């Protein structure tokens, strides 16, 4: 296992290129198996989750050619098979194989997903959706067995706004007979990206990005070429890094509209932001106002930026309150930041953060964004080396992290733990 070593105290300066979105990529790769011919994905991020997903497709007899930021998937000889263990347990988004295999073969047996378990993450709304489409769902030795004689379109109201359930139902419903309506659907940009790919493959989906999505099922789907949207969470993390280190960074290859919530919060704190067509320049200041932040579903402030934002809020001159209304208990980064001298109290679904200088320490990333929070905190520390273990979590979501940070002037390196 590796650890990340960080010497802080330097303002980050320069330009960073943002890769394609992880949360799109790991839905688009399984979506490709609904096609009977080759699908090419461009602007793919180089991440461990993507590597695991390509192995999952190989296990299903869909060869994958992955070179740089391009992946070519050939699902023409795809075979359905039970996948109770192994790679499905290594990532959260393996649950998309449920919807994709159900759509393609009318059945799927998949182990319950792994990934970042910062709190219980139920999938009852996915199951509700599959059942509404006519599938029978049972649990066998820790795996879900989902089977339908025939998938039929249905009206499905999600009790919770869920990104995963919205996408999983879109995948299965694309191959159902008749029309499916998903009400109270999630509106994240990644959902539009998946719908765009599916439509290029021959699906008939309207309304993605709104709370009602209409899917008219089709009998067959075909290959296409699709370019993945930029990763708004990675971009937001670099924006926070620029502000936290009082740097001056151009975050390039982004869709500024996807970053409105973080941009507005940074401006409220006193960070200078310049927005261009496909990039955002973030200019840090010596002092910041404290602010209150609430993580909500899109277009609200992203829960995936909540932990990184916690670290930035330690750099203000007052007390900030950061609440998460998507995950009630996503605060595993807080005890680690406290080791670095942060004054944070968790009260219910909120963290109360008092500004103050942090110091170097040995800390542990327990999930992806908690890891990002620790990197940000470490880069603000004026002297000493911070050691961050659990780098494998950070590698799930940040393409070329060390080389990107180094090119911005940070002193960061990996060592064997
Ligand atoms: C691979 C991927 O895209 N991951 C993202 C996705 O996760 P994921 O799709 O798993 O998250 P959801 O949007 O489903 O979860 C949102 C909320 O709904 C609850 N819920 C969800 C499904 C369900 O069946 N029942 C239920 O109660 C969850 O516990 C959570 O409180 O959206 C999250 C919320 O933006 C992000 O943090 C993750 O980075
Ligand atoms: C929680 C995250 O991802 P996943 O849902 O894949 O665990 C994330 O990207 O912050």
From TrEMBL:
Pathway as given in its UniProt record: Cell wall biogenesis; peptidoglycan biosynthesis
Residues annotated as binding phosphoenolpyruvate: 22-23
InterPro entries linked to this entry: Enolpyruvate_Tfrase_dom (IPR001986), Enolpyruvate_Tfrase_sf (IPR036968), MurA_subfamily (IPR050068), RNA3'P_cycl/enolpyr_Trfase_a/b (IPR013792), UDP_GlcNAc_COvinyl_MurA (IPR005750)
Record bears the keyword Cell wall biogenesis/degradation: yes
Annotated signal peptide: none
NCBIfam families: murA (TIGR01072), PRK09369.1 (NF006873), PRK12830.1 (NF009470)
The protein's name in its UniProt record: UDP-N-acetylglucosamine 1-carboxyvinyltransferase
Species name: Paenibacillus baimaensis
Gene: murA
């Amino acid at each position: 296992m590796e650890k990340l070593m960080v010497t802080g105290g330097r303002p980050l300066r320069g330009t960073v290129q943002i890769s394609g979105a992880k949360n799109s990529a790991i839905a688009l790769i399984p979506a490709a198996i609904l096609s009977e011919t080759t699908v090419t994905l461009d602007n793919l991020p180089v991440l461990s989750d993507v590597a695991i997903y390509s192995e999952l497709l190989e296990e299903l007899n869909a060869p994958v050619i992955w070179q740089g930021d391009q992946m070519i998937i050939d699902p023409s000889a795809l075979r359905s098979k039970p996948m109770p263990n192994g790679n499905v347990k290594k990532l959260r988004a393996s649950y998309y194989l449920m919807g994709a295999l159900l759509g393609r073969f009318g059945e799927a047996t998949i182990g319950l997903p792994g990934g970042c378990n910062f709190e219980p993450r139920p999938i009852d709304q996915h199951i509700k959706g599959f059942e509404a489409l006519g599938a029978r769902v049972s649990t066998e030795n820790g795996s879900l067995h989902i089977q339908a004689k025939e998938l039929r379109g249905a009206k499905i109201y999600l009790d919770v706004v869920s990104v995963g359930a919205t996408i999983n139902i879109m995948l299965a419903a694309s191959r159902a007979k008749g029309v499916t309506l998903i009400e109270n659907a999630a509106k994240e940009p990644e959902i539009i990206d998946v719908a765009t790919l599916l439509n290029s493959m021959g699906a008939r989906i309207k309304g993605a990005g709104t709370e009602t999505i209409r899917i008219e099922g089709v009998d067959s789907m075909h290959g296409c070429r699709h370019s993945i949207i930029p990763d708004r969470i990675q971009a937001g993390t670099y924006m926070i890094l620029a502000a936290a280190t009082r740097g001056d960074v151009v975050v390039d290859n982004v869709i500024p509209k996807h970053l409105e919530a973080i941009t507005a919060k940074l401006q409220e704190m006193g960070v200078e932001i310049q927005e261009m067509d496909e990039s955002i320049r973030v200019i840090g200041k010596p002092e910041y106002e404290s602010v209150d932040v609430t993580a909500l579903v899109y277009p609200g402030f992203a829960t995936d930026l909540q932990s990184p934002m916690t670290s930035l809020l330690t750099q203000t001159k007052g007390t900030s309150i950061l609440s998460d209304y998507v995950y009630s208990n996503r605060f595993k980064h807080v005890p680690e930041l406290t080791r670095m001298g942060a004054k944070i109290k968790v009260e219910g679904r909120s963290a109360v953060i008092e500004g103050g200088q942090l110091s170097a320490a040995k800390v542990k990333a327990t999930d992806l964004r908690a890891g990002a929070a620790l990197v940000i905190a470490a880069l603000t520390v004026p002297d000493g080396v911070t050691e961050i273990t659990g780098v494998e979590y950070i590698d799930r979501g940040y393409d070329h992290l060390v080389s990107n940070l180094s090119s911005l002037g940070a002193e960061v390196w990996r060592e064997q733990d």
